[in-house]
Amino acid sequence: MKNYFYAAIAFSLICCGCGNGDKKAAKQPIRVKTEVVNNQNENPATSFIGIVEEREATAVSFTSMGVVKRVLVSEGQPVQRGQLLAVMDASTANNTAEAAQAMTNQAHDMVAQAENVYAQTKDAYDRMKILHDNGSLPEIKWIEIETQLRQAETALQTARSGVRSATATERIARKSVSDTRLTAPVSGIVGRHILAAGETAMPSQAIVTILDITTVKVRVSIPESEIGAIQPNTHTTIEVDAVGKKVQGGRIEKGVQADAFTHTYDILVNVPNPDRKLLPGMIANVMIEGIGNAGNQVITLPVTSVQGRTDGSHFVWTVDTDGTAHRTPVEIGNTVGNRVVINSGVHIQQRVVVEGYQKLSEGTKVIY
């Protein structure tokens, strides 16, 4: 910024010299652009460097081991909830499911046979019971019929239990088949592409990550001397040069644990990102208001409005109430962005020329 200021001073000297060489003042007023002097904050905002982060990251993985057959998405691709992401080789799972289905069919056949045996045994039992009640059936024969009925009931219950077990096994096998198809649990942007086709996926090993970046967070490290001034609603401005974007920051999440080496605290600034241009990892310039020396009120003027003399002194062109321009000596201080602090020489509500001063000389009439 100092280089910029001195370049502006040098340019002003050249222009001023050219103006002094013109002995014939223009009779017509010269149009200029002016600024009325006012107090401003010396540091209206303090700048920090931040890193853009996703609002939330979801690692998506298969629930079983197998060879990845296809990955259907690429990094940076938007995906919707339920969208197919990857497919695992399902030959083993299909074979298991087919075997389980065969076992289920066999179990159903056994139930049908057991039901038929039970029905025949129950019919014989009912007919023998009439004879037993009339005293026409020997006791030993009746005991045999009762035993056969109990055995038929037990066989039927066992067959039905086998159907339930086979059905549960088949259900698990079918789920294993469906688990070879990996779908997105949430909507977002594909972040990292971790495994590729042909590689073996282990249970719970991430295949891809899905990032929610409809809102992003900008992480900033704040010195411990300034963290106390930051509140959840502290005003921030976020600039990301990579995408040429400047936005207002939202609610701030403030950390409570300091870094052991740097003695800084992390804050997270929530930033709306509906167009999804802000991506994780981008560098952001974060302007935070209300910290540092933001309370010091000073007079500042554009750097280019301050002229320099060969003796090292400075002046500005001020406009009197009658519309005439005058050289006014000033003492300058620090630069603040593209403005310079004026320690003395001008006062509040005084009008200063900020553009068009190149053709001015002492007493020139101006319009603005």
Question: How do the strands and helices of this protein lay out in sequence?
Answer:
Elements: H1 2-20, E1 30-31, E2 33-36, E3 39-41, E4 46-61, E5 66-71, E6 78-79, E7 84-88, H2 91-133, H3 139-178, E8 181-183, E9 188-193, E10 200-201, E11 206-223, E12 236-240, E13 245-248, E14 252-254, E15 264-272, E16 283-288, E17 297-302, E18 307-308, E19 314-319, E20 325-336, E21 339-344, E22 351-355, E23 366-367
Helix pairs in contact: 2-3
Descriptors for this entry?
eight-stranded antiparallel sheet; rod-shaped; OB fold (Dihydrolipoamide Acetyltransferase, E2P); about 375 residues; alpha+beta
Q: What is shown here, in short?
A:
By secondary structure, the protein is of the alpha+beta class. It has four domains: 2-42 and 296-367, conserved putative lor/sdh protein from methanococcus maripaludis s2 fold; 51-55 and 212-288, Elongation Factor Tu (Ef-tu), domain 3 (Beta Barrel), CATH 2.40.30.170; 57-90 and 181-208, RNA polymerase II/Efflux pump adaptor protein, barrel-sandwich hybrid domain (OB fold (Dihydrolipoamide Acetyltransferase, E2P)); 91-178. The chain has three helices and 23 strands.
